[in-house]
Structure formats: structure tokens, C-alpha cells
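Case study 2.
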Amino acid sequence: MATRTDPYRQLRFILEIGGLVTAGFSRCDLPSATSAVVEYREGADPPTPRKLPGLNEYGPLVLEVGVTDRSLELSEWRTLVEQGEMAEARRDAAVVLLDATGNPAARWVFREAWPSKYDAPRLDAMASEVAVERLVVVHEGFARIAVETGDDEDDESENDGGSTPALPDLDFPVGEGLPQGIDESRLKVSRAGDEESDET
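Prediction:
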């Protein structure tokens, strides 16, 4: 009988943003990736235009988080953009989906990300909801990459010639603010083969 594989649920995830320690967000809308279609036809072609790929387009990453003292750094990240300090504002980032036990299960990495919009929370004295601030993060490309663990050493040796997306190998330190019930040691996944061999 075939082994059953259930899809991961969306309720457990963390974000790794270079230079920031905020890990817990209440909501994360991952972007879409599309390629513009360029039509072209020559007179000797059949009466149907060719479909050529144009520029790649990536939607924004939208983050929502409850207002706390720690969430101040998100507003400060946006302030860097407003002050024109783009060299410091551009960060590499990753969204990590966790399985039911808190282990990394799926990973999306983002290149040259920076916040293009910050929405302060809506306040209402008659409501009891959590105050939530919203950050729209643009970037210059993203891709889902394989989650590597120490148990995948055999698979890595077989897939050395695989087609891994040419994105930076993000290895951010896990900072404070981890969601409840997540073991920090399991999130520090080594991504270099020589480091894995040193640990063993």
C-alpha cells in the first residue's frame, strides 16, 4: 500500500528577515510569480501568434503582526526606505512553513526585499480585537527551495546535479520572539555540506 502523505497546514510558520528578530506573524500572504506573454508573428507563420516569455513579475509579500514593543522594528525598517537608506533597507528574507511538530517543512526565499508600505492599526475604543499592523514587502525574486536536514544527507548526494533555484543561500540566525511551542534548535538548519560533516 502506498505511503500516505498529507499536506501541511498553514497555521504554523515563521519569517526570517535579515537583521530583524521578529519571527511570529499572525498572517503572511505569499506572492505570486508570473511571466508576461509577448506575442510575435512573421508573415510566413501560421495564423496564430507565437507566445514568448517576457519579464518576470513578482507580487508583494504581505505581513500582519500584532502591535508589541518588538514589532517596532518593522516600522523602523520602513523608515529606512523613507530616509533613502536603501543599502541598509534591502534584506534577504525567508518564509518557513512548519509541520505539526515544529520542524521546517517548506521554505520560500526572497531576494532584495524592502517594505514599500506600512499600515498602522485601526483603533476603536468599542472593540476588543488585537491591534494589527500591516507591512507590504516588495522584492526582486523568490522561489521555493528544498528544506535540508541532517537526515537528507543521502538524498543530497544523489541530487547534487539538481536544479536548485539560483537564489542566495539564506541562513539567518533565529532571534527572539519565536512562536510558542517551537524548538529553536530545530529551526537552525545547516545548509552547507561541510558544516553538516563537522557536526557529525
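The longest helix spans residues 72-82.
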